[in-house]
Design a protein that fits this description.
Two copies of one chain form a homodimer. Chain A is an alpha/beta fold. The first copy, chain A, folds into two domains: 119 residues, Response regulator (Rossmann fold); 95 residues, Arc Repressor Mutant, subunit A (Orthogonal Bundle), CATH 1.10.10. Chain A contains eight helices and eleven strands. A five-stranded parallel beta sheet of chain A has the order 2-1-3-4-5, with helices on both faces. In chain A, helix 6 packs across helix 8 and helix 7 crosses helix 8. Chains A and B meet through helix 4 and helix 5 of A and helix 5 and helix 7 of B. The structure holds a DNA duplex.
DNA sequence: AGAAAAGTTGACCATTTTTTGATTTTTTAT
DNA sequence: ATAAAAAATCAAAAAATGGTCAACTTTTCT
């Protein structure tokens, strides 16, 4: 499931450049060319924010300070000023890292990846889900039925994870496709159908049960 | 118990300045005005080392390189030269961070605190790990199977150590690459594949066993 | 400087996963 | 009962992944 990155910078050239690169790296991006716009995009719950310090009206530091209490995700500052003061300010205001212009795109994406990964670990979301005798370990990405392990491929597991963490909710194929492949992915949501079939097959073969229900004309749901 | 910080710099002015400030911050400090002195102070097991690169006789990089295998604590380089090359060298030689003169005392102590915090988590790892009849000595960096020593190169050992200390967890090649080479390293994670192959080869030849398991599409894990 | 060891790279192949498209089955509405 | 829409099935193509090898570069040691 692709991570969402919010890029905030008043220069469109810059946001476009970063957005393109990060999308190439497999992330979903949200772009805001002003702090105001950024605030409204926060509702989409980005997983990481790249924040330019120099902006008109509300600058990056102000923005960071005001959202830090509500938003827990990593924030990386981008700045042209290289004074020490900036670094400290950034970190005091609740930033997690800073990077000074000019920087290489690769360095940026390396840091993005590192922060996302670190964040992943510290998020103390439950890492084991259960359903009947099924034990789904999200960190090992394994599924056990009693002693028996049921092997699932990456995409299959992604879908299981998504449906299970949102158990009892119905999602149509489009929605599932978007959740797993990212909403800029170009492709047919027909793949979902096939993956669901594979998942059902494996689960049913071992457990004799059906966990995923089809709601006709609506989508699929994981029955808890 | 206050953390001990070893400050290494040939200029007494500097060591005194840093020492005073860090003591104000509540740390214990050890001061060395030469690399030789530093080496003997290592016996007191500092929790972090601040190391000037420019020093007569043995310079900071040399010192770092020669102690890195025995000392696990974070090392922060201090340098007046601000070339990129220095940064890279510092990190390659086993440093954890660098800071360029002039810097503010606040920034230094902020970084010190950050590194100590990070290190806290990873601490208290044992010096010797075992798996079946395999004995892996982290301080000597040797691997024995019974009486027989299995020779591993540095990178190979690094990978074994990483996987073993996180046994049963799955890491994809990217993660392993990042863990060993550092996240700012530019390079292909395909090297990991090759190292894993070498490690497996050596281990299997001697022990007849497979310790590293491949989880398809997921990565590798050391089976405990 | 030269040899040996370590580290890295890119290509190739086998295997597995993922995707696609055609076809069949099921469900719903008329 | 029948047609239309939605979902399931199946097989085969396409893409991604992992293992292996040989060549190449860098580092280390003598």
């Amino acid at each position: 499931m692709a991570n969402k990155i919010l890029i905030v910078d008043d220069e469109e050239m810059m946001t476009e450049l970063l957005s393109d690169h990060l999308r190439d790296c497999g992330y979903d991006t949200l772009v805001a060319n002003s702090s105001r716009r950024a605030i409204s995009l926060l509702q989409l719950q980005p997983d990481l924010i790249i924040l330019d310090i120099n902006m008109p009206e509300i600058d990056g530091l102000e923005l960071c300070k005001s959202i830090r209490n509500h938003i827990a995700c990593p924030i990386i500052f981008v700045t042209a000023r290289i004074t020490e003061q900036d670094k400290i300010n950034g970190l005091q205001y609740g930033g997690d890292d800073y990077i000074t212009k000019p920087f290489s795109l690769n360095e940026l994406s390396a840091r993005v990846a590192a922060h996302l990964r670190r964040d992943e670990r510290s998020k103390c979301k439950p890492y084991v889900l259960t359903a009947n005798n099924l034990i789904v370990n999200l960190s090992e990405r394994t599924v056990y039925y009693g002693d028996m392990q049921i092997p699932f491929s990456k995409k299959e597991f992604d879908i299981i994870e998504f449906l299970m963490t949102n158990a009892n909710q119905v999602f149509d194929r489009e929605r599932i496709y978007e959740a797993i492949w990212g909403y800029d992915a170009t492709g047919d949501s027909g793949v979902v159908k096939e993956h669901i079939r594979k998942i059902r097959g494996k689960l049913h073969e071992i457990t004799g049960q059906d966990y995923i229900e089809t709601i006709w004309g609506m989508g699929y749901k994981w029955n808890r």
